[in-house]
Amino acid sequence: MKLLERYLLAVDKCYVQSLNDPEAEPYKSKYEARKLFEELHAENIDEESDEIKKEFDTLDLIDENNKIKFIIKKPDEYLYEPSATKKHRYLVDLLLDYHIGTIYSDTEEKGEGESRLQSILMSIEPALNHSLICSLALNLLNQLILIRTSYEQYNEAIEIAKRADNLYNQSLSTEPYLLRELIEIDSAIPTIDRRDEFEQIYTYTSFFLAQIYAKLDDKDQSANYCRLTLERQLDMFHSDNRKHFDPLDWATNCATLSQYYMTKHDYATARHCLMCADKMLENVVSNENLPERTASFKRCWIKYAINLLSDSSDRLLQAADRDVTPNEIVRSLTIPKFEFKLSLPSAPMTCSYVLDYEQARQVFLFAMEKINSAKSYYVLDGFVTDHVELCQDTSQLYSKLVFFESNIDRKCKMYKRRIDLLSSLCKEISEEHYLYLVRQLLFELGECYSILLDLKLEQKEDLHTIKIVEKISHLIQSGISAFERFLTTMNDKKTNEKPETYADEYIRPVLLAHFYMGRFHSKSTQNRLEHIQQSLNQYKTIVDYVEKHPNALEHIEQEYTICKEMTNLLPLKLEKLRQAQ
Amino acid sequence: MLSNETKETITRIRRQLSLFGWKILYDWTFSLAALIAYYLLISLLPLAVSLFAVVSLIFNDREEFQKRMRDRLTVTFPERGFNDTIDSLFNSISKQAGVLFAVGFVISIFTGSRLFVGIDDVLTIIYRIRERTILDQNFLALKMILAFITITPFIILFSSVPAILESHQGFYQFLPRPAAAASAKGKDESVRVVVRCRPMSDKEEESSCERVVDIDHQRRQISIRRPALESSQRNADESTHAFFFDAVYDWTSKQKDVYEQTARPLVDSVLEGFNGTIFAYGQTGTGKTFTMEGVRSQVELRGIIPSSFAHIFDSIAHSTSRQFLVRASYLEIYNESIRDLLSKDQNKRLQLQEHPKEGVHVHDLSSFITKNIQEIEHVMTTGNLNRSTGATNMNEHSSRSHAIFIITVESSELGADGKSHICVGKLNLVDLAGSERQAKTGSTGDRFKEATNINLSLSVLGNVISALVDGSSHVPYRDSKLTRLLQSKN
After folding, report:
1. Where are the domains of chain A?
2. Which chain B residue lies closest to A383 (C-alpha atoms)?
3. pLDDT tens, B18-52?
4. Type and span of the H or E element at A64
5. Does ipTM surpass 0.85 in this model?
6. Contact across the interface for B354 and A383, Cβ inside 8 Å
7. Which family is this protein grouped under (chain B) (predicted)?
8. From residue B272, how far is each of B213, B267, B312 by CA, in Å?
9. What is the CATH number of domain B185-190+254-486?
10. What phi, psi does B244 have (nearest 5°)?
11. A226 vs B461: CB contact, 8 Å cut-off?
């Protein structure tokens, strides 16, 4: 058998067959492959083609400090080592050593692997960007990055990645040969394929860097390298080399990346990513995941809208606080940080902060449309969690829109909508299976009642018509029962009693629920005495809990001082009311 | 009424007894007791010495035992410098245990026979039984001592039973233990994590690998130390890491113990209508399959799965007040798609659905009613067969597929109100085969393990990106099917 054939067999064993190794001997094929590669050192190289001889004309072998090294020959220099055969032999040996070193590092012998790989790197260092060597060099650097990260030496790994980066930039004009062509150049391979293979290796470098920066918790850099990886994958897609490219995956990753930039308030970039994701879906041939992903991307748009509205209102409030013109503080980037090479339609919605009700309404309507079409996929029966989240998003959208609305009647209507939506959901889903969701819904429902009550009180100065009084007491009752139900979900399942201590993440909601209930009671116009007593009880519950669990104070500092005052004031009020009777 | 005859007999016996009593009191009591006590002391000392020698002979080459002894001694006497005393003690004992035993044995036979001769003398004096020649007497004493030697180990064994039980139930509870794991409410925790360490393999023994794991049952702690470069270096304080679990099992632990202490309470609660999940997690060759499956043909090597089958059907057989229905389903999750291992059509993919009232469930999953152990084992075997046939044509399949065997136990009981009450419990037995390879190959939705290695496969780029995202946002992945399925109704 020829050397090349045996080499390819070993490569197959090392990278393909090894995936099927039995559990008890996970490295069986790797060890066998290592043996094969070692044997190949003794194998003679078959007759050399003129092509490879020609390539070796520009490559020279020198002996420096007892270390044999490749260097690139300058045109006017003479060759130290004129024999192409010797150079070829040495290069093939390095290639075999590269595989052996990689196997060492793959089989938990990282130290051995690294020292072997380092020694190869020394031998080729002065000639890294030679067309025969650069593929080997880039692969080698990738391996060294992997080894360094496995030792958690991320900064050193980044240093190596920088060298890979340099190498890549220097090799932009060269035609890198494939690794196996170091044994025998295959003239049947088109240049573009060689280039693609090389590009793919560099894609891995950027992918590794994305992960390393993630480990270092440098999210910006990590996102940047994720973007670069996606960009490089897209290049592959454009160059018609689609065997490594999955449009659905790419679109999903792109949509996910948009959510990163969205949380960083970079709406232009987020919007660009989302548009690219949508665009890429056109290239997906029918796939069982397609409907789900399409609906999922709509949810990304919905979050985009919610965040944009909420950010806008925050910024407007800040502007009002600091007494500056809104334009100063809401100035936003309209140009994305980067652009993927895709021809996009015009943007479906704005990426600038909204300043008035009309703009906000546009965003709202756009998001509502996305919600409705996403709901047609995420139906309640079958996708409870997703459906409920979409409804929560709807409720959030209303609450953000209210900020820009000044008409109090319409504000009330929007809250009425939220309440209808949330309360109907609470009836639909089982508390046993979706406890977490039911809690969220009940709490939000209670809050809605509370705000609506405030609005109603503000709206009607004259509270004495019977109809209004009834309406208000109905609101109070509903609000209280929502929070009461919320609190009962916290009870111990077996004994149905209130727990002594709440988990940290529930301390604030639970105490707030008591706080809201206290407020509801104090707003009541009927049976004042009884309600004030109830109200006092609620505030007392909070004060008692905080006294028993001092660590709860940090969760509810502001409200606690109010409660404390109330527990002092309300008894006086009660006394007054009693006397008045 | 008593007859005169009986009265007379009683009086006679009483008189004899009182005479005997007086005699003892006046003449012999103290001198004889002192004599016997003297012989006893003389004979016990060499006996103790030889026993001690035997113990050290037996455990001489068991380093693990010695280590534990040493540790306990150090814990009990924490003074500085005491270590050295113990060390020298251990050394001299291990060298001279044989000689010590021989000497002790001979002396104890001699002194023992003296004891019996002494007792015989005393009895002769008291009862004035027939005289024996000196030779006879010594011969008898020798026979007695041989009988004594045979019986003693049994006596010691039985008398130590309560002590052993005591030590298992927290004799060492007073030792300090980090608060997080010290909570005695282990049973009430919804998640229990136990660790089991397998013995060293022959291969490891051959290449004289060093054991770096120490297990402390009482404190439910395992500590891992760096392999010592020099064996003499014993100040291992900064190079050990201690981990606490709800329970720890070492290489000598029995399948039965693991089942009784960890799985049994869970299976019991399933029979009462709760849901439970058991899975084993660990690297290749750490004995996951042994713990979960074991050797079915040998009762004492049976793993958790066959034991839980036996347990369920045993409890059902012993229950008179309740009616039971046991159903079994078997599914496999590979690449986030679900396959029913019991269905005829193995190419069909199932959907995970959420019903507003019934929670997360797998749509169209087939289930079989099983009435005894054989039937449920048959269901499992059928599924395993389907699993392996599906695996051969896919790369990396086995290393990335999870299998869940679901046992649903429905029971109905006639309540006080005359209506029958039904409760349903589910036991999920999960096979996370080859989970460790995910670090190398990567799979979508896998956030199980925070590996230090970075992922080689571009297919997990999505994971890298989604890890960047937090706050109010949407990540367009479904959660891993495995976690969603197991989270249903806990």
Report:
1. 45-241, 246-406, 490-580
2. B354
3. 887 776 666 656 677 777 888 888 878 887 888 87
4. strand A59-64
5. no
6. yes
7. Belongs to the TRAFAC class myosin-kinesin ATPase superfamily. Kinesin family.
8. 38, 9, 11
9. 3.40.850.10
10. -110, 140
11. yes
